[in-house]
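Priority: low. Protein: COMM domain-containing protein. Input follows.
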Amino acid sequence: MSATLDEISNSKIVDAEWNFGVTASSSEMKVVGTTYLHLKLLVESGNGTIKTLHFEMTLPQFYSFLHELERAKSSLEYLT
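Result:
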């Protein structure tokens, strides 16, 4: 299952779990050796329901995501 922005935009992240991996074999040679990140988020929606969301990202996508999280953190720290 892949999560959409609508599913997380009004939600609170309760827990996160991630792991990195490297593609060891594939029917496509160009894919072998590529790195990826699996991210699992537990989010609580406005009505108290907890939902599990799964993402898979390439390493560049992960670094972009991390950069956005750092920007959000800085913005929140500035406001408080």
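Helices lie at 5-9, 59-79. The mean pLDDT is 85.
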